């Protein structure tokens, strides 16, 4: 019976994450890039600078940096470490280029969805900011029912993709490397999670502001060390990545390109899954930011996709490809587990390599747990009211406690389906409000200090 249910769920997952959704997401990325005149230029030149500046007099709950790191906490996860390896294993080295390009174009969609999240946000009677696709759909398009669907999909997805699978990854790593029983790890993670999330967005943002920079720098330094060790293979690896992104064939070090279809399929899918541009999750955190106008925070939020995919995923891909080329004994064509490839790469650093990888997985996964807890509770509050917050947090922590000792195959697949279903209403909001996005951009892009005087509506708790 369970096998039959699992087979049906897997089939549904294949349907919702088929080519149609990949085309819809990537198409939106390209469309918004064109309509916004390649807004990516502003992300690099202005967004990064704004992300570390404060705007304390502006309306909002947390700083722009706090909102960004909360979103990055949920976005930068084990997919950046293991997922890229899986894309290379299944789609060949050319998948790295498609993953990177997806990130570059995805910046425009992340900018767009964050802009409307701030523009259509509301404030509760006790001063908490609420925003995201559900409010953009209900206030901007009068499609409250579609906003409700988004909130339901995202709320339930948080238990799987944001909590259970991440805790399981932490428990597995701790058990394999330190011999700690998995059930103990689950309890510890649940307690640490409860301490943070019961403090609300300010508590979550405070932890993320410290954890995200540390974990990213720590992991990137490990990548840099490996690239220094593999320095004579960097240029050849770049050539192989570009070549095998468009053509099938073999290259040095046992690398095999399966052709443009497989490279695009796994590269784009991994890029979309990694940076979450178009899913509508990160804008929920963006809506809480202290910002003078929607464009200002949209630029800050769009840097998340830049750091996640354009930097972290690209570095991981380059590390893996140079490692395979340097060690011909590694037959990448026979390895389908991205974690195995990544472990092989980091084992090149004597003694410290496995430690860097282990701590990277733990910190990336824990930060994802915190970020998604905030996404989930905002969605739960949208359709269940404030009375749903405490029960949600309790269930979230309970899921964290039991995740290491339950089978997660079905949970993971269900969460994957819910992620896809989240994207549909969110993309509807982005595309139908594209004129508003362009108008707001023209209004503020050349004067980011200009204050939006439109009052934020106050709603009853």
Automatic annotation (TrEMBL):
The chain crosses the membrane at residues 17-38, 145-168, 180-199, 211-231, 237-260, 306-325, 351-374, 394-414, 420-438. GO terms for molecular function: amino acid:sodium symporter activity. GO terms for cellular component: plasma membrane. Its main location: membrane. It is a multi-pass membrane protein. Gene3D superfamilies: Amino acid/polyamine transporter I (1.20.1740.10). The keyword Transmembrane applies. Keywords: Cell membrane, Membrane, Symport, Transmembrane, Transmembrane helix, Transport. Belongs to the alanine or glycine:cation symporter (AGCS) (TC 2.A.25) family. NCBIfam families: agcS. This is Sodium:alanine symporter family protein. It comes from Clostridium scindens (strain JCM 10418 / VPI 12708).
């Amino acid at each position: 019976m369970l096998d039959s249910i699992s087979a049906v769920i897997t089939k549904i997952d294949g349907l919702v994450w088929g080519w149609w959704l990949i085309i819809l997401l990537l198409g939106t990325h390209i469309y918004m890039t064109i309509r916004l005149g390649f807004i990516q230029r502003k992300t690099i030149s202005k967004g990064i600078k704004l992300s570390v500046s404060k705007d304390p007099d502006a309306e909002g709950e947390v700083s722009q940096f706090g909102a960004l790191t909360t979103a990055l906490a949920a976005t930068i996860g084990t997919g950046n470490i293991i997922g890229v390896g899986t894309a290379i294993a299944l789609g060949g080295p050319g998948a790295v280029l498609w993953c990177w390009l997806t990130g570059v174009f995805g910046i425009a969609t992340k900018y767009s969805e964050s802009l409307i999240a701030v523009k259509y946000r509301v404030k509760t009677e006790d001063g908490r900011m609420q925003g995201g696709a559900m409010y953009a759909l209900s206030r901007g398009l009068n499609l409250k029912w579609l906003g409700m669907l988004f909130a339901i999909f995202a709320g339930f997805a948080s238990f799987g993709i944001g909590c259970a699978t991440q805790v399981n990854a932490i428990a597995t790593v701790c058990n394999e490397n330190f011999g700690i029983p998995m059930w103990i790890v689950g309890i510890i993670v649940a307690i640490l999670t409860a301490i943070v999330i019961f403090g609300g967005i300010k508590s979550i943002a405070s932890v993320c502001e410290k954890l995200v920079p540390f974990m990213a720098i720590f992991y990137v330094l490990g990548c840099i060390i490996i690239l220094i060790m593999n320095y004579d293979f960097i240029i050849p690896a770049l050539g192989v990545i570009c070549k095998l992104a468009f053509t099938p064939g073999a290259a040095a070090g046992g690398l095999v390109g399966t052709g443009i279809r497989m490279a695009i399929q796994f590269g784009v899918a991994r890029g979309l899954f990694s940076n979450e541009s178009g899913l509508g999750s990160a804008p929920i955190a963006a809506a809480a930011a202290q910002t003078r106008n929607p464009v200002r925070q949209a630029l800050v939020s769009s840097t998340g996709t830049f750091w996640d995919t354009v930097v972290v995923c690209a570095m991981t891909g380059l590390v893996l490809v140079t490692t395979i080329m340097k060690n011909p004994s590694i037959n990448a064509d026979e390895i389908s587990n991205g974690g195995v490839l990544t472990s092989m790469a980091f084992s090149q650093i004597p003694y410290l390599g496995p430690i860097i990888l282990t701590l990277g997985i733990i910190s990336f996964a824990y930060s994802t747990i915190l970020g998604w807890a905030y996404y989930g509770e905002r969605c739960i509050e949208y359709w269940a009211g404030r009375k749903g917050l405490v029960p949600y947090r309790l269930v979230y922590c309970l899921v964290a406690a039991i995740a290491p000792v339950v089978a997660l195959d079905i949970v993971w697949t269900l969460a994957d389906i819910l992620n896809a279903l989240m994207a549909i209403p969110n993309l509807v909001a982005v595309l139908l409000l594209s004129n508003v996005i362009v108008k707001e951009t023209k209004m503020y892009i050349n004067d980011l200090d200009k204050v939006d005087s439109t009052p934020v509506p106050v709603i009853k708790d």
